[in-house]
Write a structure and sequence with these properties.
With about 200 residues, the protein is mainly α. Helix content is about 70%, strand content about 10%. A three-stranded antiparallel β-sheet has the order 1-2-3. It starts with a helix and ends with a helix.
């Protein structure tokens, strides 16, 4: 449309220079140089039309670039929202995995303790089959009971009840001096509660 308008103005200029100007003012400054006057007017018209064309093209390109940027921004915002949602899911999964890892660690610790207990009982069983005396076998049992409890300051003893009270048959972990007495009154002993 712009260049068609410029061509129409060029035609009007041609009519003005070659027909209107000589008939209304026969003594004008361009007399005998109408071709130069027409050329200058058309050149001026061409330069102005070209500048307007370049401005319109630049403006259209700017609008297209802005539309493309807005579309990219909307896409990036949607992607950022999706990444945020996935990040929340990953954090939730990480917490669940940490919880499961802790549960597995606790279960593993329990299995290790159970395995130690079974190993200790197996060693006790094997040692009892070696033809030990009754006292040595009971001593082994007390020692094994102390290890099964899995604490550093645990003492164990096997008590046998008779008419006069409780008799310590074997003990382990009561220190280098051992027990002060090998007999306990029945009513003063915690073991009596268990036996009753």
């Amino acid at each position: 449309v712009l260049w068609i308008t410029a061509a129409a103005f060029a035609a009007i200029t041609y009519f003005e220079v070659y027909y209107t100007l000589p008939h209304h003012d026969p003594n004008n400054l361009w007399k005998g140089a109408y071709g130069v006057a027409f050329g200058l007017n058309v050149f001026d018209l061409f330069i102005i039309t070209l500048i307007i064309h370049l401005l319109i093209t630049s403006r259209d390109k700017l609008h297209r670039n802005n539309a493309s940027l807005e579309k990219s921004n909307a896409s990036l915002a949607a992607r950022e929202e999706e990444i945020g949602w996935k990040n929340e899911q990953l954090q939730s999964q990480t917490k669940a995995l940490e919880r499961q890892s802790e549960e597995l660690r606790i279960a593993n610790d329990g299995l290790i303790q159970h395995e130690r207990m079974l190993q200790t009982l197996l060693e006790l069983s094997r040692s009892l089959n070696l033809g030990l005396s009754v006292d040595d076998a009971l001593g082994r049992i007390c020692q094994t009971l102390s290890h099964l409890v899995n604490s550093g300051n645990v003492a164990t003893a096997i008590l046998l009840a008779d008419e006069s009270g409780l008799k310590v048959r074997c003990d382990h972990g009561f220190g280098p001096a051992g027990l002060q007495s090998r007999r306990l009154p029945r009513d003063a002993s915690f073991s009596a509660l268990v036996m009753d």
